[in-house]
């Protein structure tokens, strides 16, 4: 029973490691893409206005 739990623990630790790497990768992608998306935006919509108002409060 203990051996089975140790195996399961190692599997979970490996999965956490994989998810951590994936999470970091996705965050880096967002950092690279967000400035490009913002610079391409030319139309100011009501949704944009609402978002800008939230920053003021």
Notes on the protein architecture:
This protein has one domain. The chain has two helices and no strands. It is 88% helix and 0% strand. With 57 residues, the protein is mostly helical. The chain starts with a helix and ends with a helix.
Structural features:
57 residues; mainly alpha; 2 helices; elongated
Helix-strand topology string: HH
Q: Which class of secondary structure composition applies to the elements?
A: mainly alpha
Shape: elongated
| Mean pLDDT value | 85
Q: In angstroms, what is the radius of gyration?
A: 21 Å
Largest sheet: none
Q: Which segments are poorly predicted (pLDDT under 50) over 5 or more consecutive residues?
A: none
Strand content: under 5%
* SS field, number of helical segments: 2
- End-to-end gap: 56 Å
Topology:
Elements (H helix, E strand, L loop, with lengths): L1 H39 L5 H11 L1
Compact description:
The protein has one domain. Helices cover 88% and strands 0% of the residues. The chain is built from two helices and no strands.
């Amino acid at each position: 029973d203990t051996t089975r739990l140790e195996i399961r623990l190692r599997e979970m630790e490996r999965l956490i490691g994989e998810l951590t790497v994936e999470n970091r990768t996705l965050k880096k992608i967002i950092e690279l893409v967000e400035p490009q998306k913002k610079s391409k935006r030319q139309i100011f919509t009501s949704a944009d206005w609402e978002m800008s108002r939230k920053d003021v409060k």
